[in-house]
Write a structure and sequence with these properties.
The complex is a heterodimer of chains A (258) and B (308).
Chain A: H1 2-20, E1 23-29, E2 33-36, E3 43-53, E4 65-71, E5 74-85, E6 88-101, E7 104-108, H2 118-123, E8 135-137, E9 140-142, H3 149-160, E10 164-167, E11 171-173, E12 178-185, E13 192-202, E14 205-218, H4 220-231, H5 233-254
Helix pairs in contact in A: 4-5
Chain B: E1 2-5, E2 10-13, H1 14-31, H2 36-45, H3 50-74, H4 80-106, H5 110-141, E3 163-166, E4 171-174, H6 175-192, H7 197-206, H8 212-237, H9 243-266, H10 269-292, E5 299-303
Antiparallel strand pairs in B: 1-2, 3-4
The chains are: A alpha+beta (258), B mainly alpha (308).
Chain lengths: 258, 308
């Protein structure tokens, strides 16, 4: 009897899981590699995709909602707050943000509060407000309340540099199943691997999820300079000095009066 | 026209950077200074990170001081022996400065130290220069003739032992104050990320009584050697020298320096000192404003260690 109940419970769970993840997402990025050349000045990367219902499932009453989260390579940053000491403004208190995304973009069909409840938003880290930003506080690693001044300042400064982006109407459905969004990459975007996480919601719950990725790399001359600076520092420095002497000498010859 | 900088990791307008190089180069040629105290804040202002700015400006200063040094050399306005002795002190000062730099960075007080030293140093040095040159100009106006080198102007500095004869400067002075001045310049330069020409020039004039005609050329030779060394050191240790940015600054800088040097020769020495003094005070006050006025944004973010 107990065994039967257990089996039934498992079966019910499976069913629930299936109904919750019954949608399949097929997506395509315009580019899987973004090249940084000497002309690079930022880029809007296009993402296309379709949301498909499983064959045997009944159709949805409601339209789909989508959240696309793009996460760049992780970095550790320090946020400092200025305070007035003896009449001058100095950096006083500071907070370390450990291994947070260097780039973070959240695009959705409409404000996430309209289609996902609070638990769901927290569990799935929907939106900049809900994304985990681990901070070092008294030798403990953890995130803080959303209205914490350091956390807010961090988001504000990142958004000013266009490295953190939130667009509540960033995803559009061209047909009930076909969606399109653009990922705005500013010129100062760091190189590395970017993860794309696509979540589909319907009837107030998560019904499908897919991931993708792209890479931002330096190529050609830019790559050559960056790798030489890193791997052959002394030679690179000497070359720069040689350039300096050459330009200096050249100018004095060209502008010689006699 | 935008170009992406491979080390600074951002695009800049070519003409803006060339123009900045030209303007700072003009000033550096005119006064015989490196111009680092102008260029570094300018680069930070257009978005280049402070670390990359300091490292790249070193190579820019090397280029414009080489171009300047050549033209002064042709006019035989360089005291090579004096530059060499200054350099001995300068190397020791740089090592000491780099050590303090590392300590300050570890305890997290580097920014405020740099800010305060800019304010104190620029305002006091600039202020002294302005006062002195105004007094000289007024004296001249009132018709009182002042000899270039007053006979009684020997100070305690000139009584020290270990004397060396500097032929070009027509000086016979102790090596101790010369090395000492080199040490101070190297020390301050390493901490503040500047060549130190604007400090060296008045020190040579007022403390050592080096003739004004040789001061600028000699200062340029010293700046050239220290900044070339700094470029290699920065490239080897921090990998933060942006060669594309450096080239753009250099091209603008050397052209500007040539015109600046010519403009400088047309001006009387005391008026030149007055102008430089005013410029130095202005930059110092600009830094003071940053420290005193309530900032619009109380917070800053910066990458930890290795990255910039």
């Amino acid at each position: 009897m107990r065994l039967l109940r257990l089996l039934l419970a498992t079966f019910a769970l499976l069913l629930a899981a299936q109904s919750a993840q019954a949608e399949r997402i097929v997506s395509s990025l315009a580019q899987h590699q973004v090249f940084i050349t000497s002309q690079f000045g930022g880029l809007d990367l296009v993402l296309f995709g379709t949301v498909e219902r499983e064959d045997n499932a009944p159709p949805r009453k409601d339209r789909y909602d989508l959240v696309v989260t793009v996460t760049g390579p992780r970095e550790t940053l320090v946020t400092r707050r200025k305070e007035r000491i003896l009449g001058i403004w100095v950096n006083a208190a500071s907070r370390e943000f450990v291994k947070v995304p260097s780039y973070l973009a959240v695009m959705s069909t409409r404000p996430v509060t309209e289609f996902a409840d609070q638990d769901e938003r927290r569990r799935l880290q929907l939106g900049l407000e809900r994304t985990l930003l681990p901070q070092m506080i008294n030798n403990d690693l953890g995130d803080v309340a959303r209205d914490d001044p350091f956390r807010q300042a961090f988001l504000r400064l990142k958004m000013q540099r266009r490295l953190y982006v939130e667009k509540e109407d960033g995803v559009t459905f061209l047909t009930p199943n076909l969606f399109r969004t653009t990922i705005p990459l500013p010129a100062v975007v760091p190189i590395g691997t970017y993860d794309v996480d696509i979540k589909v919601f319907a009837d107030g719950e998560l019904v499908g999820r897919a991931t993708s990725a792209f890479e931002i790399v330096k190529v050609g001359f830019e790559q050559f300079v960056a790798t030489s600076a890193q791997n052959h520092g002394v030679l690179y420095g000497l070359t720069t000095v040689a350039f300096a002497l050459m330009t200096g000498w050249f100018a004095s010859v060209v502008f010689r009066k006699d | 026209m935008e170009i992406y900088l491979p080390i600074a990791d951002l695009p800049v307008n070519i003409f803006l950077v060339l123009g900045m190089g030209l303007a700072v180069g003009f000033i550096s040629g005119m006064f015989g200074i490196g111009g680092g105290f102008l260029m570094t804040p300018l680069l930070i202002f257009i978005g280049v990170s402070p670390a990359v700015s300091v490292a790249t400006v070193a190579s820019h200063i090397a280029a414009s001081s080489f171009s300047g040094a050549i033209s002064y050399w042709r006019r035989k306005a360089v005291d090579l022996a004096l530059a060499l002795v200054l350099l001995v002190g300068g190397v020791a000062g740089t090592i000491a400065g780099v050590w303090l730099f590392t300590v300050l960075r570890r305890i997290g007080q580097l920014d405020i130290t740099i800010g305060l030293s800019y304010v104190i140093l620029l305002c006091s040095v600039g202020g002294l220069m302005v006062m002195e040159s105004v007094r000289a100009i007024l004296r001249e106006r009132s018709g009182v003739k002042t000899p270039l080198r007053r006979p009684g102007s020997h100070t305690w500095v000139h009584g020290l032992p270990a004397k060396i004869r500097f032929k070009q400067s027509r000086l016979y002075i102790s090596a101790i104050p010369v090395c000492g001045i080199g040490f101070i310049i190297g020390f301050i330069g390493a901490i503040m990320g500047i060549g130190g020409g604007f400090l060296l020039v008045p020190m040579l004039i007022y403390v050592l009584r080096v003739p004004t005609s040789v001061v600028i050329g000699t200062s340029m030779v010293l700046t050239l050697v220290t900044m070339a060394a700094a470029t290699v050191l920065h490239a080897a240790t921090n990998h933060l020298v942006d060669v594309v940015l450096a080239l753009l600054l250099m091209v603008g800088g050397v052209i500007g320096a040539q015109f600046g040097a010519r403009a400088g020769q047309k001006l009387a020495a005391d008026r030149l000192r007055l102008l430089l003094g005013l410029l130095v005070v202005a930059v110092g006050l600009r830094f003071a404003v940053d420290l005193l006025i309530t900032p619009r944004e109380m917070y800053t973010i910066r990458a930890v260690e290795d990255s910039r």
